[in-house]
Amino acid sequence: MSILEIKDLHVSIEDKEILKGVNLKMHTGEIHAIMGPNGTGKSTLSAAIMGNPNYTVTQGEILLDGENILELEVDERARKGLFLAMQYPSEIAGITNAEFMRAAMNAKRAEDDKISVMQFLKKLDEKMDLLNMPEEMAERYLNEGFSGGEKKRNEILQLLMLEPTFAILDEIDSGLDIDALKVVSEGVNAMRGDNFGAMIITHYQRLLNYITPDVVHIMMDGRVVKTGDAELAKRLEAEGYEGISQELGIELTEK
Amino acid sequence: MSDTNWNNYLEDIQSFSVNQGEPDWMLNLRLSALEKIKELALPNIERVRFNRWPLTQVADFYEPLTEGAVYSFDETKDSPLIVQNGQTTVIEQLPMSLIEQGVILTDIFTALQEHPQLVKKAYMQLAVKYDEDRLTAFHAAFMNSGIFLYVPKNVVIEEPVEALFFHQANSEANFVKHVLIVAEENSQVTYLERYQTLGTSQTKQTANIMVEVIAKNNATVKFSAIDQLGENVYTYMNRRGHLLKDATINWALGVMNDGNVVADFDSDLIGEGSHAELKAVAISSGKQTQGIDTRVTNYGRHSVGHIIQHGVIREKGTLTFNGIGHIIKGAKGSDAQQESRVLMLSDKARGDANPILLIDENDVTAGHAASAGRVDPDEMYYLMSRGLHKAEAERLVIRGFLGSVIGAIPLKEVRTELTEVIERKLN
Predict the structure, then answer these.
(1) A72 touches chain B (CB under 8 A)
(2) How many H-runs (helices) and E-runs (strands) does chain A carry?
(3) A162 and B386: CB-CB below 8 Å?
(4) d(CA B102, CA B78)
(5) Cβ-based contacts of B390 with chain A (< 8 Å)
(6) How many domains does chain A have?
(7) Is A53 an 8 Å CB contact of chain B?
(8) Is A39 at the interface with chain B, CB within 8 A?
(9) Which residues in A lie closer than 8 A to residue B312 (C-beta atoms)?
(10) A78: which chain B residues are within 8 Å (Cβ-Cβ)?
(11) Which residues on A lie below 8 Å from B400 (Cβ)?
(12) What is the enclosing helix (H) or strand (E) of A161?
């Protein structure tokens, strides 16, 4: 079992403090949902965990199995088993989806243990099938000209291929129609197991109808303000963020 | 070099010409060129300074034959092939079926003896003139090896014609190479040439390479090249197409040299409806400078000239792309488009992409795009977030950047080989 622990995390972008002391602990085998109004730092949390150089951690720790990973570069964190499905993945012309994924899978394997083309293609076929992705998407350039929904599916495809220990899904549901949402959820559910943990960042409860979380955290104003089980998400759906913020005496700055 | 007394070479040139059994007109061309070298200026390549490069340094005419074959080739393959090691032609093969149709593929001196009229009509007459500048004159005077490829009217050559030119790094002779390709009316040919320096040398070498492609009415030439001249080789390279009515030349050029290079890749769209597509990729690294002028001149009505060139610069390298689109008055309905991009990978890398449009006719379409920039940090972050090491991510971005040009090259064989050469140059 692996543990990802975030302790008193403070993060700034260009001197503006976004995260003001986040505490959170998750184990493999669990799915956590992070919910909250826009602009409360959910995406900042995901970027800070992954190691985006545009975000500065000013205080606190991120521990993966007890080791502080804040000094590690993004690629080192990835090779240690972290994965971030991005809200806005880059489009890169000239590199096919397949060759990129194969290179990524090989990056954490030893020199004498590279995945064979046959093994790779077999796995790729299987996972693309699961996500209802047409075969030709493997040979298209990485995210280039992909629709919003195709990009999201492609992020989940990478998740399924790379099989990380912990995955963070940053608003993977935004801009998806209900069919695509089901497919993406199926992909994430397929990963469920003792050796996998996921942190699902979302604004809406809708996604959680398809992926049932074990733990739900509510973030407001740069902090986790309430933690509960799947029922908490349902309560949110009924009452909106207003209700919770009034209960906790937090003023919502959104809108 | 301005002190060179060119008359000192008069006798050398005469004796070389006589020894090769050249026709009188060829000797006269050499001598006229020799006389002009001194008064002609170097060609102008915008934003590239090369006046101190040893591009007109005269070395020996001949080089001693190197012992032993350096090229082992698949003898079961009988596709058209010519291999020259320095000045020596080591392999020359042409399937009987093509010989019967009148196709000629041979070294330039044999061609001058056996087909003097065909060579005379085209050699530095149509595409490149001997007295354009100091380097064309130097070439005409000192040319010491080359090939002639002739495709008769209506002949279609299915398999690619390959030429392989080895340059010996420790050679004492200049490498002054001439490639003359004549594609007669309605003919079609695919040609692939490779230049490669063998061995290393501490002394500076001079290379002057000229390629003339004459595409007559409705002829189609697919021209591919992979250039890998060595670190100490100072090269002037001029590839020029001369296109008559409805002729097409597709250029696919990989500029992967390790030394200093100035190059002119030009297409003169003389005939109505003629069409040139040029795709070039280049990598500069180490301390090398490569300056490339790519020009398309539309003379004919409804002629089309497209240029796409992408280059990568590493370490302290310099790479300049000048894309020149020139539409002559009267070339109504013609089209000139170009895209030049360079990607710099280090703080010391220097790159330039200059679009130059000269348009003297109103009824035309023309456009350009150019950029000189660094690797996008967001792209790097995305790739590295999947576990790729920085170097690997960078390699992918570069391959992607060049790949968008390589993907458009029609010959799969060339695409594959070029990709391999790029890997070598990046490691």
Answers:
(1) no
(2) 7, 10
(3) yes
(4) 17
(5) 73, 75
(6) 1
(7) yes
(8) no
(9) none
(10) 384-388
(11) 92-95, 141-142
(12) helix A148-162
Give me the tens of pLDDT residue by residue for chain A, a chain 255 residues long: 999 999 999 999 988 999 999 999 999 999 999 999 988 999 999 999 999 999 999 999 999 999 999 999 999 999 999 999 999 999 998 889 999 999 999 998 998 999 999 999 999 999 999 999 999 999 999 999 999 999 999 999 999 999 999 999 999 988 888 988 999 999 999 999 999 999 999 988 889 999 999 999 999 999 999 999 999 998 888 888 888 888 888 876 644
Q: What's the complex ipTM?
A: 0.95
How far out from the chain centre does Cα A184 lie? Answer: 12
User: Which residue range(s) make up the domain with B376?
Assistant: 6-426
Residue A251: inside a domain: no
Domain that holds residue A27: 3-239
Contact between chains at B389 and A75 (C-beta distance less than 8 A): yes
Q: How many domains does chain B have?
A: 1
CB atoms within 10 A of CB A74: 25
**CA distance to A105, A106, A205, B418, per residue, from A110 (Å):** 11, 8, 41, 28
**CATH number of the domain encompassing residue A49:** 3.40.50.300
A59 occurs within a structural domain: yes
Within-domain flag for A250: no
The residue written with tokens 């180490």 in the block is B286
* Residue B262 at interface with chain A, using a CB cutoff of 8 Å: no
Residue numbers in A near B407 (CB within 8 A): 94
Quote the CA–CA distance of A159 and B138 in Å, as a whole number. Answer: 61
Does residue B1 form part of some domain?
Answer: no
CB distance from A89 to chain B under 8 Å? yes
Cα-Cα end-to-end distance for chain B: 36
Question: How far is B169 from B70, CA to CA, in rounded Å?
Answer: 13
Chain A: give the shortest CA distance to residue B253, in Å. Answer: 18
CA neighbours closer than 13 Å in the CB half-sphere of residue A22: 34
Query: Does the distance separating the beta carbons of A90 and B376 come in below 8 Å?
Result: yes
Query: For residue B150, what are the contacts with CB-CB under 8 A and spacing of at least 6?
Result: B102, B103, B104, B105, B111, B115, B118, B181, B182, B184
In-domain check, residue A203: yes
